[in-house]
Description:
- This protein is 45% helix and 15% strand.
- By secondary structure, it is an alpha/beta fold.
- A 5-stranded mixed β-sheet has the order 3-4-5-6-7. A two-stranded antiparallel ribbon has the order 1-2.
- Strand 4 and strand 5 form a beta hairpin.
- Helix 2 packs across helix 8 and helix 11 (221-237) runs parallel beside helix 12 (258-267).
- The mean pLDDT is 93.
Amino acid sequence: MSDRDFDVWLSGFRGSISNYGYYIDFEKVYHNVDKMKVELNILNSLIGSGNIEVEFEDLLSRYPEILKCIPLLLAVRADEIYAADGEGAFSYSFKKQNLSVGQYKVFMRKTGLFDLISRHLVNNLVDYATGVETGLDSNGRKNRGGHLMEDLVESFIVEAGFIKDKSYFKEMYVSKMTEKWGVDLSAISNQGAMEKRFDFVIKTANMIYAVEANFYASGGSKLNETARSYKTLALEVDTIDELSFVWFTDGKGWISARNNLRETFDIMEHIYNIKDMESGIISEICK
């Protein structure tokens, strides 16, 4: 049970933990564009063309590989694109030509790509593709954001002196913990029916610490479910002498789910935020 003041603890939660690499992974952007740079430069010959349909047909007959970069010009990550209107429905392959050249010209015309290129609305398709890739990569922020808290927690675990794959382990399943240390964890695995995985497991001479880490910048129903499930997990872990459950969480999203979080806070011995980690809580509890 915690003797800390919940409201004071919650008031220290942060609005964001985004680092500089969170926004755009430019190395990935450049890598993706480089894979198509030759084909994009070939298509560059059509910029400002006064007879683009004829020139496109000639280009496609000589360099069929230019097809592969067309989806990127539409900000689509796919080798096949479906399109339909009153004149018919077609599934265009951009990996290997599966329709007539005339049909691909219809695609280029109706999607607006011929207009974009022939009217000189862009000066260089490599630069344009770089911009498109940058926009597409912004969709990856959710995945990157999901790992930010884990990375942060891991940095504090390392700072506390624990060594990866020796005294702490990432993404470890209950079955692996049982196998490695011979401890009965059936109380948290529904007698083996459910395979639980912890973000981190820290092993000291006297205890196994099962660690979960998450950050919620915005609210939602998921937070209430998370708080409830971790409350249940904490009560189950309490029945196992060799195991302690540690939850590191933070984020202003918890403000809207404060009541459920408070219930978990009231029964959990080891629930901490980023400020706690900065104050050295990992070294203090993991002995």
